[in-house]
Recover the amino acids of this structure.
């Protein structure tokens, strides 16, 4: 049995769609909480990013991978991933420009008296962006199957 | 010393899931056993009072890896397994059994959970972090303080590894965009 003969994975279930519609906002809030509040409670960018990425997977589970793929903008995914790296490195290098060492948050204290805390939270957000975007991206790349890569190789 | 019933049950569950993931012939069943194993291990991390690691294990190990494995399976054709369990090679059993025995022999040398004289608690480095983390970094979670401040350069490397994984996946699959 070839891949094309099989029935699609997506079942248009009202129960799943309604559940996801109710649960998704809470999951996204929880993900942001884990990311923002990681400085004071267990959690942080890596964990929160994965949970944020799983929101898109929940949507794909409920509404079908193809329609979710059309809804999620490619540029947003790429911008989140590279923007996260950019935020992290620019905070680190910015401290060096101000005369400190790499990621020496105390150099930013002229902006805010809690510069260290906010700097760490910003870094966690950057990590969260990278992880969420890569999780979403790998999900879509895997869901699309590997057929394209093989086809192009055959043509070349 | 009798371990509490909950921990014992959890240990049996985790080892059972690990054996299931290793021995089940149906790949779908093995993936599900692996997810259950990760969930059990994440609870174990909580019992060892490492909630940060537990969260990661639950989100990455039990959550996202299972979804990615399932998607990869959906892209392949699964043959009907003719029998339930993988056939086991005697030499493999001896080798794995020997390795497990060696690892298990080190367990009695570990300090008890929460032992105040254990090197982790009493160590100079740990004490420095616990005493100075809040004053120096302004965050209450000393794990985050180590991760983002004391060893921020390490964490930058980790984050870039995740980023690189995405880029490599695209280039291996000869794609230009994620979605």
């Amino acid at each position: 049995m070839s891949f094309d003969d099989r029935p699609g994975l997506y079942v248009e279930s009202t129960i799943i769609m309604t559940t996801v519609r109710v649960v998704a906002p809470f999951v996204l809030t929880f993900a942001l909480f884990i990311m923002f509040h990681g400085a004071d409670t267990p959690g942080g960018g890596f964990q929160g990013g994965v949970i944020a990425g799983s929101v898109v997977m929940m949507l794909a589970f409920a509404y079908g991978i193809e329609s979710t793929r059309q809804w999620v903008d490619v540029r947003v995914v790429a911008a989140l991933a590279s923007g996260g790296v950019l935020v992290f490195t620019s905070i680190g290098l910015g401290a060096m420009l101000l005369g400190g060492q790499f990621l020496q948050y105390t150099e930013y204290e002229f902006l805010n008296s809690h510069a260290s805390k906010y700097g760490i939270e910003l870094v966690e957000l950057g990590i969260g962006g990278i992880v969420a975007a890569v999780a979403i991206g790998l999900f879509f790349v895997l869901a699309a199957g590997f057929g394209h890569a093989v086809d192009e190789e055959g043509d070349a | 010393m009798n371990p509490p019933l909950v921990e014992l049950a959890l240990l049996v569950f985790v080892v059972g899931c690990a054996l299931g993931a290793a021995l089940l012939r149906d790949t779908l069943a093995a993936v599900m056993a692996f997810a259950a194993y990760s969930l059990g291990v994440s609870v174990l991390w909580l019992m060892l009072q490492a909630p940060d690691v537990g969260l990661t294990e639950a989100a990455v190990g039990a959550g996202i890896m299972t979804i990615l494995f399932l998607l990869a399976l959906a892209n392949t054709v699964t043959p009907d397994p003719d029998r339930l369990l993988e056939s086991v090679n005697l030499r493999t059993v001896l080798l794995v059994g020997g390795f497990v025995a060696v690892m298990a022999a080190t367990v009695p040398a570990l300090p008890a959970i929460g032992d105040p004289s254990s090197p982790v608690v009493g160590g100079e480095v740990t004490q420095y972090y616990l005493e100075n983390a809040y004053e120096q970094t302004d965050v209450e979670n000393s794990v985050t303080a180590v991760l983002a401040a004391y060893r921020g350069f390490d964490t930058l490397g980790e984050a870039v590894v995740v980023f690189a994984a995405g880029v490599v996946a695209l280039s291996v699959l000869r794609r230009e965009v994620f979605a």
